[in-house]
Write a structure and sequence with these properties.
heterodimer, A: alpha+beta, about 55% helix, globular, B: alpha+beta, Beta-Lactamase, 2 domains, five-stranded antiparallel β-sheet, two-stranded antiparallel sheet, 7 helices, about 45% helix, ARM-type_fold (chain A), golgi apparatus (chain A)
Chain lengths: ~900, ~200
């Protein structure tokens, strides 16, 4: 046997391309497959041809429908052979071909015969093949055999049936659910993997029945589970039960924690790790609970197996985000991992250390990282840069060495994403650490001297324009900026011109020199650059004297655009050239929340033909157009805000109605979007009777009925109320839909002449304080907050009482105020005990409002909140507090 | 996370990143070109690492990859980001060792291609539609080699006569496989065989 092998090795030296499949070709193999039809089957040869076919499929060769069918039919012939090896290949081949329903019928009887065969291998494999290719109708025929197979004494057969059950549960749940008695029995099996498969299937069958899962877990955690895989499953199910029962137990020991801790002493590493990870992921885990898990993970850190080290360091990295002190014990082991061969492990170790490290270890750590940075890929470097940024924010005193590190790596080679991550980090540090500002800006200036990325250059120039003039010596940046005008492409040059102009506008002393530079830009080859230079020269006072620039000019040139760009784009598209100039004040400022509402709609209303939209395209300017086209409402003035649609009917009712509240300065218009979901009815003269007796400040002034509402085509009816001007009046309204209903002949679609008057009760509608606040975001909350000043600041504290979670309390307050969360502060990180949320908005009467909410947990569930409001008007600040106090 | 551990795919590639055998269970890679692109990227990311003594691990496009190399063969198992790494490596080790047993220690590309049927059956016995069937290498190899699941003796403890029988079968197979080697006297046989 040795000889031919040696011989072939020699061959390979001469011929590099050696492969038994060298030069294989689909057409030839398909020809060869004719041997399957021979009356005298040669099992060896047939096996080989199947191997070749599988090789072709494996290499990505596609068979046409005809080819696949042909191969499938000839393969079915091979069931005649009694050769075990060949039969195995036939099974694999059938699975690979995934035959169509009418082809499946061809092999069903053969497979069913194998399924009841005495040979275990036949039974196990036939079950897997048949379940893979079968559909629901056949399944009922073989169900009896499958149930038997689940409790078969041969573990391979039993596993085959259970795993097939796991797959079938996705397509035929009602059938598989009938097997739970057998599956239950299999859970008690002595064979390790049978237990694993049975447990997985049983849990999937019962996963929606919390009580049953609870029972399953409590019985198994007491008993003995043999297979490590099954034990891992049990740990997963247990943590699920813990998670779901968390709300019921107030204090005391966590149920099943002892089980998880016990698993840390299991003999299989996969179980130990699964348990350790489950403990670290418990909601609100205490440090006492964490300790044993951290201890085993620490042991894994010094394992010789990379996979174990990786798993441990990845888990500890996650723990470090919420419980950094719990991980500090592992720091020494972690430091030795910085030089790990596996770069994923090294990166995870470094970022963990950066999260857990204390102030004194920063310098040492930075030295180690510097060596490490040169030989890792960009994707890892980005992770490190982000970790360094958060470290610097944590220890602002260390900004010098960390900023130095960032500027050093900024000079080295790297791709765009990496460079962007560094620049972003420096920008954030400059913004948040005042002492770091000047050095940071100089680092950025040096970077743009030699920066190949236009995007980054323009971003940095823009940032320089904002921060540079506020520094002690603004003039030193001018050189860097003006160099760009000489050396860069048009985009960067235009950016540099704007930045120069900002210096000129903000620093009066520099103005004459800036003007000289700007005048030179008038001869640029690019028109955008020239245009900008001309604009700035003219608006900033063209004689270039040392004069103060007017505040309105500054605001015009450099003020922030508080209009969402999407809205501006839409308004510009809708603008028709005419005598009337485009007025930017008429662009809606509301941040669009519409996509969310639209996403919900299809889920709620699967009825009708292609699910009709609940109303007209409900963007802000579409509303505005719609309302201004109705003469009754034309004198109400400018639309302040339109709410998201509020459903007034349950889903799946005869008539679907939702309402949009349009707020004007001294009016409120309710727009009722109605849909008739009964094909046999035509509604006419549809109105909504609104009873405003619980809304004293409102009086009805007009209503606009809907003439006709045929099946499945939405229509609107409106009711308008007058209210005191500029006052955020609130109130509750009850609604009654009134209409004339006419029968429709579904075959002809024609309505009868006579109709009956009818009414339909709708749900109540409330106008709340949030309706008077526009969601308008600000890009930099801190700047906005400071420039607003503390003149009309109102601060007070509130107890919010017991809440499910901090996140729930935060969302409740955001919803109550109806303001725009800024800088992602609406997201509360899990397990945190305090949170700060920043909101901004515009109050009716066009008054800007900024809100800073500080939440803290006071006791186990009670949430306390400190509310600070700044606005341009003290009555508005008070009004916000009023909303919270009464809400 | 609350569900059963799941294998997304097995890859067995050669030292240039070409397929020897692959098996996908997840539909994240709908087309063959998507699969090939994934394999190529994965191969170039891992080829410089030393995964010959211990299985190595990497994060790649939101998957966890465990891998091990021997000779000119690269074994990969891919799982979800949140998967228990040690379960994945157990599957990889089962695959790796079972192939070693089936190829009788001669684990290289040539031997693997010559016994591709065994490799494919091996994959079929380890995972079914993403669900782990068996992780014990002896049990896997036993099921594949003996062509019968009720063979109780694991491959490593076969009696001499059994071993001889398997060896004889193996030899026959190797001889048959020689058909594809352009050796004159065998090529003649081949021509006769296919014409007959």
């Amino acid at each position: 046997m040795a000889q031919p092998l040696v011989k072939k090795d020699d061959d390979r030296d001469e011929e590099v391309e050696y492969s038994p499949f060298f030069g294989i070709e689909k057409g030839a193999v398909l020809q060869e497959a004719r041997v399957f039809n021979d009356p005298q089957l040669d099992p060896q040869r047939c096996s080989q041809v199947i191997t070749k076919l599988l090789y072709l499929l494996n290499q990505g060769e596609a068979f046409t429908k005809v080819e696949a069918t042909e191969v499938f039919f000839s393969v079915t012939k091979l069931f005649q052979s009694k050769d075990l090896g060949l039969r195995r290949m036939v099974y694999v081949m059938i699975k690979e071909l995934s035959p169509s329903a009418d082809e499946v019928i061809m092999v069903t009887s053969s497979l069913m015969k194998d399924m009841t065969s005495k040979t275990d291998m036949y039974r196990a494999n036939a079950i897997r093949v048949l379940c893979r290719i079968t559909d629901g109708t056949l399944l009922t025929q073989i169900e009896r055999y499958l149930k038997q197979a689940i409790v078969d004494k041969n573990p391979v057969v039993s596993s085959a049936a259970l795993v097939s059950g796991i797959h079938l549960l996705q397509t035929n749940p009602e059938i598989v659910k009938r097997w739970s008695n057998e599956v239950q029995e299999a859970v008690q099996s002595r064979a390790a993997l049978v237990q694993f498969h049975a447990l997985a299937l049983l849990h999937q069958i019962r996963q929606n029945d919390r009580l049953a899962v609870n029972k399953l877990v409590s019985s198994l955690t007491r008993g003995s589970v043999r297979s490590p895989l099954a034990q891992c499953l049990l740990i997963r199910y247990t943590s699920q039960v813990i998670r779901e029962s968390a709300n019921n137990t107030q204090t005391g020991d966590r149920p099943f924690y002892d089980f998880l801790e016990g698993c840390l002493r299991h003999k299989a590493e996969m179980v130990i790790f699964e348990a350790a990870r489950a403990i670290t992921e418990l909601n609100g885990v205490t440090s006492r609970e964490l300790t044993p898990a951290i201890t085993v993970l620490q042991l894994f850190l010094s394992s010789s197996k990379p996979v174990l080290r990786f798993a441990a360091v990845r888990t500890l990295n996650k723990v470090a985000m919420t419980h950094p002190t719990a991980v500090t014990n592992c720091n020494i082991d972690m430091e030795s991992l910085i030089s790990d061969q596996n770069r994923s492990i090294a990166t995870l170790a470094i970022t963990t250390l950066l999260k857990t490290g204390n102030e004194s270890s920063v310098d040492r750590l930075m030295k180690q990282i510097t060596n490490f940075m040169s030989d890792i890929a960009d994707e890892f470097k980005i992770v490190v840069v982000e970790a360094i940024r958060s470290l610097c924010l944590k220890f602002p005193l260390k900004h010098r060495s960390l900023m130095n590190f960032l500027s050093n790596i900024l000079r080295e080679e790297g791709g765009f994403e990496y460079k962007k991550a560094i620049v972003d980090s420096i920008v954030i540090l400059i913004r948040d650490i005042p002492e770091a500002k000047e050095t940071g800006l100089l680092h950025l200036c040096e970077f743009i001297e030699d920066c190949e990325f236009t995007y980054l250059s323009t971003q940095i120039l823009h940032f320089l324009g904002i921060e540079g003039p506020k520094t002690s010596d603004p003039s030193k940046y001018i050189r860097y900026i003006y160099n760009r005008v000489h050396l860069e492409n048009a985009t960067v040059r235009a950016g540099a011109v704007s930045t120069l102009a900002k210096f000129g506008a903000m620093v009066d002393g520099l103005k004459p020199r800036i003007f000289v530079l700007l005048r030179r830009c008038l001869f640029d080859t690019d028109d955008e650059v020239r245009d900008r230079a001309t604009l700035y020269l003219n608006t900033l006072g063209g004689d270039g004297a040392v004069v103060e620039t007017g505040a309105d000019v500054k605001e015009f040139l450099f003020g922030s655009l508080d209009i969402p760009l999407v809205n501006l784009e839409n308004s510009l598209k809708n603008y028709e050239p005419s005598e009337k100039p485009f007025d930017i004040n008429f662009v809606p400022k509301e941040v669009k929340t519409q996509p969310l509402a639209e996403k919900k709609a299809p889920g709620k209303k699967p009825t009708g033909l292609g699910a009709p939209p609940p109303g007209p395209p409900s963007t802000v300017d579409a509303y505005e157009k719609l309302l201004s086209s109705i003469p009754e409402f034309s004198n109400f003035g400018k639309l302040f805000k339109s709410s998201a649609p509020v459903e007034l009917t349950e889903a799946e009712t005869e008539y679907a109605v939702n309402v949009v509240k349009h707020i004007f300065d001294s009016h409120v218009v309710f727009q009722y979007n109605c849909t008739n979901t009964i094909p046999e009815q035509l509604l006419e003269n549809v109105t909504v009777l609104v009873d405003g007796s619980e809304a004293e400040e409102f009086s009805e002034v007009a209503s606009k009925p809907l003439r006709s509402l045929p099946y499945d085509s939405p229509g609107q009816t409106f009711v308008a109320f007058e209210k005191p001007e500029g006052v955020p009046a609130v109130g509750k309204f009850s609604n009654m839909l009134r209409f004339i209903v006419k029968e429709v002949d579904p075959s002809t679609g024609e309505a009868e002449d006579d109709g009956v008057e009818d009414e339909y009760q709708l749900e109540d509608l409330e106008v709340v304080a949030a309706d008077y606040i526009l969601k308008v975001g600000v890009s930099n909350f801190r700047n906005a907050w400071e420039s607003m000043g503390a003149d009309f600041e109102r601060v007070d504290e509130y107890g919010l009482g017991p809440r499910d979670s901090l996140a729930e309390a935060v969302n409740a307050v955001i919803d109550l105020l109806g303001m725009q969360p800024c800088e992602g502060t609406e997201v509360v990180s899990p397990n945190s005990r305090s949170h700060t949320c920043l909101l901004s908005g515009v109050y009716i009467g066009n008054v800007k409002v900024l809100v800073r909410l500080q939440f803290g947990l006071d006791g186990p569930k009670d949430v306390a909140m400190k509310l600070a409001v700044r606005s341009e008007d003290e009555t508005v600040s008070d009004a916000i507090h009023e909303i919270v106090a009464s809400g | 996370m609350d569900s059963c551990p799941c294998i997304k795919n097995f890859l067995l590639l050669d030292s240039e990143g070409n397929r020897v055998a692959v098996k996908y269970y997840s539909d994240e890679w709908p087309t063959n070109s998507a699969k090939e692109a994934f394999e190529k990227a994965l191969f170039s990311k891992t080829q410089k690492t030393n995964a010959r003594t211990e299985a190595e691990i990497a994060m790649f496009e939101n998957h966890i990859i465990v891998y091990k190399f021997v000779q000119d063969l690269h074994f990969f198992v891919v799982g979800a980001e949140g998967e228990n790494e040690l379960i994945l490596v157990t599957v990889l080790q089962g695959f790796f060792d079972a192939v070693g047993l089936l190829l009788r220690g001669n684990v290289d590309k040539k031997e693997a291609l010559e016994n591709l049927d065994l490799i494919l059956l091996c994959l079929d016995e380890i995972v079914d539609g993403g669900v782990i069937l068996e992780t014990d290498a002896n049990a896997i190899a036993g099921k594949v080699a003996s062509h019968s699941v009720d063979a109780t003796a694991p491959l490593s403890e076969q009696t001499i006569s059994q071993a001889l029988a398997t060896a004889r079968e193996h030899l026959a197979r190797s001889l048959l496989n020689c058909m594809y080697v352009p050796v004159p006297w065998l090529a003649d046989d081949d021509a006769m065989g296919s014409s007959g």
